[in-house]
Each structure stands twice: as C-alpha cells, then as structure tokens.
Design a protein that fits this description.
Bound molecules: NADPH dihydro-nicotinamide-adenine-dinucleotide phosphate
Radius of gyration: 24 Å
Structural class: alpha/beta
CATH topology of the largest domain: FAD/NAD(P)-binding domain
C-alpha cells in the first residue's frame, strides 16, 4: 500500500494535464487532477478551438463576395457578433463536457481547486484548505498572455488593453482596433477582426512580423495584409495609451495618434508558475519563470515532472499532448521516452493561412546545410472566377547534397491542411526525388508540391 494519497497528482487541466492524467489512470495509477477553472485549458477554452471558430466566422464575408463570380447573389447580409459568441460558447461548453467525461471515465479524481506546493510530495488545495500527497506530481499549468508592453520603454495604460482572453468575450465587435505584436496571436486576431468588419492596425516593433518563419512567407503575408486593408505599422511601438471619453487613445513612437474602441496586446505568454510555490519542492525555474526540465520532462525534483506551455519549449497543443504521452511512458510504463521536438508542423491561421514544417532557408544555412530552393507562386483556381487578386506561395528547402527535403513552407488557402500531410513525408526523411515521383492530384493547390521541377536558386552556408 502506498504511503501517498495518489500515485500521480496533476496540476492543471489543459491539453497536457488531461492527457497525462487520463493515460496514467488507464495504466493503472491512482490519479487526481486539480483545475480551478474549466477543463480544457488554453486550447479548448480560450485558444486554438474558439480562435478557429472565429477564423471561420471571419471568412464568410469574403466567401460571399467570391460567390458572386460564381453566379450567387445573397442579397444584403449582416453579421451579428453576440450570436457568434453565444454559439461559440455553447460549443466550448460541449467540448469541456467531453473532456471532463473522458478524464472521469478513466478513473481520475477531478478537483475544482487550486493546488500549490508544500513540499516535493505534498500539495495544498487552496479553496478547500486540504493537504494531499502524491508519489509523482506533474506540473501542467500552461501559460498566460503577458500585458507588459514596457519591455523596451515604460508606458502607462497597458491595463486598458485586452488580451486574447478577453477578445473571446467582448460584448460587441470593435469598429476600430489596434493590435500590438507580430506573432501568431496578433496576426490571427488582426485577420479575424478585419474579416468581421473592424478597421484594424497591427502595431509591431520589428521590421516584419512572424520572426522565425521563412522570410518569403513573412513578406507574402505582410503584402497580403496591406492589400486586404489591414494597416501594418512596422518599427512601431506605443508611447502612450489612455482612456478618453468613450474611446481609447494611443500614441506611437512614429507620431501616430489613434482613437479606437479596443487595443489588444499579443506580445507573448508567460508560464503559470507564480504563486505555485515550486521553491518549496525544489523545482528550478528559468529566466521567464518556466519550469526547467530535462529531456524526459523531469524537473530538478526527481519525482516532479512538467509538460506543455509551462516549460516554454514549443507552445503548441499537440506538442503538450505528445510530451504528456512520453511522460506516462517514462513514469508509469517503465519505458523512458523523450519527447521529439523535431519536424513539428505549425500554422498561423491568418486568411489565407501560413503553415510550415522543417527548416527555413536561414535555419538550414545556420546549421551548415548547402541548400537548393524551389518555389511556386500561383493564383488558386477558386479566385479566377471569384475575382480577388490572391496568390499562393509554396517553397521547398532541399539539402543540395543529400536531396532530402528540409523544409516545406506554404502561404495560401488550406496551407495548414497541406502541411500536416507534408510533415509525414519530412518525418520519413523524404527526398525531393520522392516528391517528384509522387503523382499529382489534379486540380489541387497541393499538387504544386510534387510538380516543382525548376530550382529557384542554391545557397551555401
Ligand atoms: P509570439 O511569441 O508568437 O509573438 C510575440 C510577439 O510579440 C512577437 O512578434 C514579439 O516581437 C512581440 N513582442 C514581445 N514582447 C514585446 C513587447 N514588450 N512590446 C512589443 N512587442 C513585443 O506570441 P503570441 O502571444 O502571439 O503567442 C504565444 C504562443 O502561442 C506562440 O508562440 C505559439 O507557440 C502559440 N500559439 C500558436 C497558435 C497556432 O498554432 N496557430 C496560435 C496562437 C498561439 P519580436 O518578434 O520582435 O520579439
């Protein structure tokens, strides 16, 4: 009989925590999970899923416009934000129920409470005041949007801004919104609000958004945003934000003075380790407050592990789930398994989408690979009758000596769906000749990936 209340205590009911709890319970462990909010975490409650629903909503205006070229006329159309938000909330509640059902069915005890460390094996449940003990503890507390616009200069007024958390629950659609940041969230919400009819300005401090993505893709996205009517202010930062009458007033380092309904900050997320008292358990934190883990997601305390965003490795739901599965293999199935963070595909759900797997040109060169670059740009068939000037860009980065495809980058309709499949090929180590030998599926956009024959250029490190 174990001297602990549980074999595993999971702190946090997001993608990583729920998966780990469920799989450990199915492996025979006695598991409890504490989540003071709703089950599902960022992804289900205030991230990927509601975001994608909003992305779909934002694309209908364009689709209706395109339909005219195909002979359709829908007459006058109007959009109702409260209906969208209510329907979205209903779907999120349904999904939360499914999450809860699955985890409870596996035999996990779900506690609607906040757990903090007392020592390496003991947690205090803050709401009910009880102490619980566990042989192993998993920290899966995720992360939260940062509002600190003052990293490079001090400004007041960031408390007047919203983050993505609040964007999902606005009472009304802003007519005019400024979005600070140049990462996934800023770009996705810029397109969502623009597509729904708001006037949007992206305020980004760097020279082009999406640092870390392929330069050609970043340029194509930037040009597309401007063409659509999203204002992109580069090298731009807020110097002042204040409330004036019924609006917010913002000033920028470029002399801009803008009145708007909302200002959204999407400038990164910080790990949820504040007030967790990990120091009482001997768990080391990194500079950003992330839980430092080894290759097996083990923290500096031997019985405590951490997975997902709180470890600040790759902040992506499928990665957290993968880390959770590896954790269960390691800690409960006697099969030490390292999470594999290579060939992770990702997409920015702009309109159109930007998706990638593998290395960018710069990354490949930085790793010492000589490369051949293949590119294709074309107008998707849909838009010929639709009439809009939309172009897709596809790019393959190929190792010049081995012929192996190192990276696949797409900016265009359905990029995420295509890249998910291309990721299998890259995972299997496919060479460009394997792409070339694959018969095209016609007429699709994806067929361009297997019909690119002419090298655009070569580069050496
Ligand atoms: P990101 O890390 O993607 O981007 C942060 C952006 O904010 C960067 O452009 C950064 O600029 C800028 N920034 C950072 N600090 C400041 C500051 N003090 N003032 C002004 N700008 C600043 O963060 P997000 O919040 O967009 O998203 C967090 C993570 O969530 C992502 O990294 C991603 O992993 C995940 N995510 C994934 C999605 C998906 O898979 N589709 C969707 C949404 C989120 P600079 O580049 O100059 O540093």
């Amino acid at each position: 009989m174990s001297k602990f209340d549980y074999d595993l205590f999971v702190i946090g009911g997001g993608s990583g925590g729920v998966r780990a709890a469920r799989m450990a319970a199915l492996a025979g462990a006695r598991v409890a999970l504490a989540e003071e909010d709703r089950l599902g975490g960022t992804c289900v409650i205030r991230g990927c899923i509601p975001k994608k629903l909003l992305v779909y909503a934002s694309q209908f205006a364009e689709n209706i416009q395109d339909a005219k070229g195909y002979g359709w006329d829908f007459g006058a159309c109007r959009f109702d934000w409260p209906t969208l938000i209510a329907n979205k909330d209903r779907e999120i509640a349904r999904l939360e129920g499914l999450y809860r059902g699955a985890v409870e069915k596996a035999g996990v005890t779900v506690l609607g409470d906040r757990a903090v460390f007392e020592d390496p094996h003991t947690l205090r449940l803050l709401n009910c005041g009880k102490l619980v003990t566990a042989e192993k503890i998993l920290i899966a507390t995720g992360n939260t949007p940062t509002r600190d616009l003052g990293a490079s200069h001090v400004i007041s007024g960031s408390e007047l801004c919203i983050t993505s958390n609040e964007a999902f629950h606005l009472k009304e659609l802003p007519r005019r919104i400024l979005i600070a940041g140049g990462g996934y969230i800023a770009l996705e919400f810029a397109h969502i609000f623009h597509g729904l009819g708001a006037k949007v300005s992206l305020v980004y401090r760097g020279e082009k958004p999406l640092r870390g993505f392929d330069d050609d893709m970043r340029d194509a996205l930037c040009a597309s945003m401007q063409q659509r009517g999203i204002e992109v202010l580069l090298g731009c930062e807020f110097t002042k934000i204040e409330k004036r009458d019924n609006c917010l007033h913002a000033e920028t380092n470029q002399g801009g003075k803008i009145d708007c309904d909302q200002i959204m900050v999407a400038i990164g997320r910080r790990p949820n380790t504040m007030a967790l008292h990990v120091e009482k358990a001997g768990v080391e934190l990194g500079k950003k407050g992330e839980v430092v883990v080894d290759d097996y997601s083990r923290t500096s305390a031997p019985n405590i592990f951490a997975v997902g965003d709180v470890t600040d490795r790759l902040q992506l739901t499928p990665v957290a789930i993968h880390e959770a599965m590896c954790f269960v293999e390691t800690a409960f199935r006697n099969n030490p398994t390292r999470p594999d963070h290579e060939h992770v595909p990702s997409a920015v759900f702009t309109t159109p989408e930007l998706a990638a797997v593998g290395l960018t040109e710069e990354k490949a060169l930085g790793l010492g690979h000589p490369i051949d670059v293949y590119k294709s740009t074309f107008r998707p068939l849909l838009h010929t009758l639709g009439g809009r000037e939309v172009r897709t860009l596809m790019k393959l980065i190929v190792h010049a000596v081995t012929g192996r495809v190192l990276g696949c980058h797409i900016f265009g309709d359905h990029a995420a769906e295509i890249v998910q499949t291309a990721a299998i090929a890259l995972r299997l180590g496919a060479a460009k000749t394997d792409f070339d030998r694959t018969i095209a599926l016609h007429p699709t956009a994806a067929e361009e990936l297997v019909t690119m024959r002419t090298k655009a250029y070569s580069r050496k490190p």
